[in-house]
Amino acid sequence: MSFFISQAHAQTAGAAGAPAGADLFQIGFLVLMFGLFYFIAIRPQRKRQKEHAAMVAALAKGDEVVTTSGILGKVTKIDDSYVALSVTDNVELKFQRSSIHAVLPKGTLKAI
Asked: Chief subcellular site (predicted)?
């Protein structure tokens, strides 16, 4: 009956496995991908966060700013975590300091 079924022979150890340096290559590839991701995504984002934190910390009364929602106004009051913006003559809105997007050059509100 053995003539219908061919006998299977065991392969030698290592012949079917990965080449000797494949594990080291995979680890190196993962390190390289993390390094690339760090320089493309993480590092620029941290730089923007630091610049925004410095801009928010340097806010002063009388600065003309734009919020993240696009509202333009002049800073009238500054608290630890809130900023009051004068939008028009009798309208004053209160925002969180982190919602300030940019500080505009002086005279921008009059030019608009």
From this structure: membrane
Instruction: Indicate the pTM of the whole model.
Output: 0.71
Other residues' Cβ atoms within 10 Å of the Cβ of residue 100: 21
User: In sequence order, what DSSP letters do the residues of 35-86 get, joined into one string?
Assistant: HHHIIIIIHHHHHHHHHHHHHHHT--TT-EEEETT--EEEEEEE-SSEEEEE
Encode pLDDT of 42-59 as tens digits. 999 999 999 999 999 999
- Per-residue pLDDT reduced to its tens digit, 58-102: 999 999 999 999 999 999 999 999 999 999 989 999 999 999 999
Q: Which fold has domain 58-108?
A: SH3 type barrels. (2.30.30)
* Residues 37, 40: Cα–Cα separation, whole Å: 5
In what helix (H) or strand (E) does residue 110 lie, and over which residues does it extend? helix 108-111
Residue extents of the structural domains in the chain: 58-108
**pLDDT tens profile 89-98:** 899 999 999 9
